[in-house]
Amino acid sequence: MTAALSACSPPPEQQAIKGMVEHSILPAYRQFASAASDLYRQTNTFCEAPNAENYRATQEAWRQAVQGWSAIQFLQFGPLMIDNQSWKIQFWPDKKNLIARKTEALLASDDALDIARVDRASVVVQGLSAMEYLLFDTTGGQLTRYNSDSPRPCQALAAIAGHLQQVASRLNHAWQPELNNYAAKLLSPGADNDEYPSRQQVLVTLLDSLVYGVELIKRDKLERPLAIPGDGGFPQAYVLEWWRSQYSKEAVIANLQHLRTLYTAGQTFGIDDLIAHQQYADPPHQALAEAITNQFDAALNKLAAFDTSLFSAASSSSDPELRQALLNIHSDIDALLHLLEDDLPKAMGLSLSFNANDGD
């Protein structure tokens, strides 16, 4: 929590918007662009010398790019929503195993495998999902494949990485103040702003992002693949996000960490400070502000203590201790969602445009 605003400071709503944009959203887009660039560079290093060390380094660079994507995945507004940008980064869920089939079809074709070809291709063979197949799949992503006589697996890997780097760079450019400056739309609401005519509309958009992100974790990353609450369903490990790399849990942790950063504006003046500020809320909602922060921390602590992958947990659903640990994590996520979806909008005097119960 920051100190009280001085009398000459901007309105608390504007301070919160500025904090969230400058200390959460803009750094997240910069980091994702940087991680995608590092992944492209490492992929080219691997393809020049496809040995075990470079293979592992490329897998790690992919994980760092997933971390970067997890910081913006829930920001479902602005440039990310134009021309399927999010699908170009991640194709999920893949219930029909299209990634494997279409990636293998691309490899078997006579087409030149370059960035331009990937750009013309289906989103199924673009982005982090296709790269996960080529780096982690037990059949399609093994090191031996890159030591064969065919150069095409590495050509595809490098082309997909190069295309991802371009997508991430364009998104970053679209947001940054010194470039296309989409950030200015959030920072300067008003009658002449076609997307955000008021500060309230900006706050609704940011609040929607918090609710959407936690609902995405609860429903799509936990409940559906892990059969929670378990009313007759069965776990579906292959519906998990990033199941090939067994990186599902780490992506959920990254989501929650960055959702928390959005809420607190990176420990500057965020929504937590806004609802506790006497100039904004009468009476101030100090207890709610702290309850939400504490609930983020409770969920993160339980996930950190969960010492197996979600893929293994889905495959070992008969283990009662493991199952209870998952249910406890889910319970904390559910409690967090209720705070964000029910209590927080009331405290802010706002109505969500995203309805988690409808799955929009």
TrEMBL record:
Gene3D superfamilies: M75 peptidase, HXXE motif. GO terms for cellular component: cell envelope. InterPro entries: Imelysin-like, Imelysin-like_IPPA, Imelysin_sf. This is Imelysin family protein. It is found in: Cell envelope. It comes from Spongiibacter nanhainus. The keyword Signal applies. Residues 25-326 form the Imelysin-like domain. Keywords: Signal. Its main location: other. It comes from the Bacteria. Pfam families: Peptidase_M75 (PF09375).
